[in-house]
Batch of 2 targets.
Target 1
Amino acid sequence: MFENLMDQEFPFRKKGSNYLNTSGLSIPPMSVLRFLHETYIRIAINPELEFDYDDQLNQITDHFRNIMNQKSESFSFLRNVTEGLMIAAQSVTFNNKDEIIVTSLEHRVALNCWKIRQQQEPKLELKIVEVKITPDYTSLDIILAIKSAINKKTKVICIPHIDRYYGIVFPVERICSLANENNIYSIVDGAQTLGLIDVDFDYINCDIYLSCLHKWYLAPMTLGTISVNSRVFNQLLRSYASSSRWGDLQFSKREFGGRELGTRNVALEHSIGELITFHNRFDDYINTPTNIKEYFVNELAKIPGVIIIPTWQMIRNYGIVTFYFEDFDTKKIINLLKERYQIIVGISSREIDMLRVSLFFYNTYLQVDELLNGLQHIISADNRKK
């Protein structure tokens, strides 16, 4: 019964591509896409409906505060994590030669938010300190590496909760505690979390937490969240203008009301309610233990020449598996998978290019077998680097 319902919600399971790249972008359920389409039509017929959705938006924001254990009122939807990081980077008041700690596993586009701020004020001589983190690092290794980079000029620590390259879960609560002890702003990139793992904002106790809903939470594109700790709201969000038509000029009245800045995509926000309904209906099935990821890793290891990137901690049910083949062109393998077998996987580019497979509840063992067979055929055909 559940599998039949999933076939209806995610048609790619029966026709179209074999999609194994949720860490890049999720596939929203058809029920949510239909609801989104119908809402656009309703607003086109009656534009005043925009204002009738405010009560539901309040319920939606309350839902996310609850699932993220966020008691603070400082919460809003935005387009993505990068937008949130740009707001954060532009909001911090820096002094001369202040330092920003990031890690080698931060998304390069997110890293650009800090580089842009650095370039905007060259006289400040801001320094971006990149802490190298490798997949074999334990939780303690990560903490010690970041701790060793802290000095009296450190102003910001910006870290991923789960990195996009290997799926490493960072010990964010301990790193944020370290930041708090040293009077350093802590910003957490949670693009890969909501829908995959539990997020406890109060326990993490960071200053800003950012997330994407259009990855593991299955929302349509351009939906993310920003949560700001009440202790730093007036310090960090100095450039923030709320969506209120009347309160923006009074700084004390600025607050996140769950809305994007300025004109909002009301239909998109409204569709989150339908997505919550989907999760309420199916999360018990979605969270049922499975060994599909373990099965894939074990079978993948049997293919000659494969190098699977080991991580000290792997999320049990779902998540990211990163690997490559010695002497083979990763980009060529990815293109061949797509062209010959209609299989979509991601690419993870660090020191070398690697294949990144994301497994989620809507992926089946049949799809995994199709990927394994495709890889076997490509490797056996000797598509080595020339």
Target 2
Amino acid sequence: MKKILILLVLLKVSFSFGQCFSKIAAGHYCTFAVKSDGTLWAWGGGNLGDAVISQSNTPIKIGTTNDWSVLYSGYWHTFGLKTNGTLWAWGKNDNGQLGSSPSYSYEDVPVQIGTDTNWSTIAVGKQDHTLGIKSDGTLWAWGNNFYYQLGDGTTTTRRFPTAIGTDTDWAQVSAGGYHSVALKTNGTLWSWGDNAYGQLGNGTTTDMTTPTQVGTLTTWSKIAAGENYTIAIKTDGTLWSWGLNTFGQLGDGSTLAKASPVQIGTATNWVNIAAEHDHCLAEKTDGSLWSWGRGSFGRLGHGNEFSSYTPVQIGTDVNWGEITLGYDHSIALKNDGSLWAWGYDIYGQVGDGVTIDNWSPTLIACPELSVSNFENVAESVVIYPNPTHEVLNVISQKTAIEKIELFDLLGRLIETPKGSNNHYTLSISTLENKTYMIKVYTKNGVECKKIIKN
């Protein structure tokens, strides 16, 4: 009878893999990510945002706050938006690209830019300029302006965010090397700045001093500016590109520059794009990932260093999510929150603990989830049996258990319901036989331990 009673009170738990990383951004030789708990992490070399550590080949935590929302990074400066709409920046500021100081400065750690709480999106240029859109649809720019890339009609460097015109219908913005592109809410395409290679897409090589509409179409949906070229997606899912094409970064099968948009292939299911110095990433609606352009250091993820003049699929997986590019490395999230990286790794920007180039996507373990971090459990929490095969008992001898989290060694989270019980019995019979890590939350803190499922 006692055995039957125990079976009746077993807690029914529905397991689902949650995200470890939620947002990513790549700089010149560094990478940044926001975890699902809102904390900020960085690795590689350069402007990591830590006042002491300037290089790491594994993710390190930046600061202690857990309210980071979105990240944006250029070659040497980085921005982040917090959940309250404030804007923060760190890194080089010699051309005012951070918008934080009237004179030259270098910000080792994130500093708030102004006091506004209505920033919506940011674009960080490869050569020291920054663009932003606020929630009211206004466009702002600051930093290097030698080629009119700020769009204010001058070549004057701006050290603080400066309003560009008075329009309130800006929707997307992207910053290249010395040129800028943007979309309005009506689907029109606009560009300005350097146009030496036709990267503005207006059929000329004449620089534009202010935002100028490209053609008359109202069907543009996504844009991405590379160093001296631009790629875009239309609402019909077609892919287009223009500008410099030395390494086939336009994806049209040639190395000839184009001054007007040219369609890339015939596919109509492109959904997301990213462009860097001379290589590109793109996703299709089926979740597949594609790359093209310069292939040195394995940045294309095809298992070799060959350049590709047309889009080539990376592997066969169809569960890719967010994508971003560094100068010669690539970063992508899958839909399960796992982070993958490949390409040049001399400064540890791939994040796999070594400094060896990766020619194919490599899984980056979720930080703070090494087995060594889960070895100490206070006597107030008892977890048994361990090893276990069918069930796992978790008992708090002093205070009620508020929440239990179970992780695998890849950092993927298996969530259990919150409660106020002192005794939880988890059925783990359907889990794979391997090592897991458990966190037990009580009002006295968090207690952790390694669990072996056999």
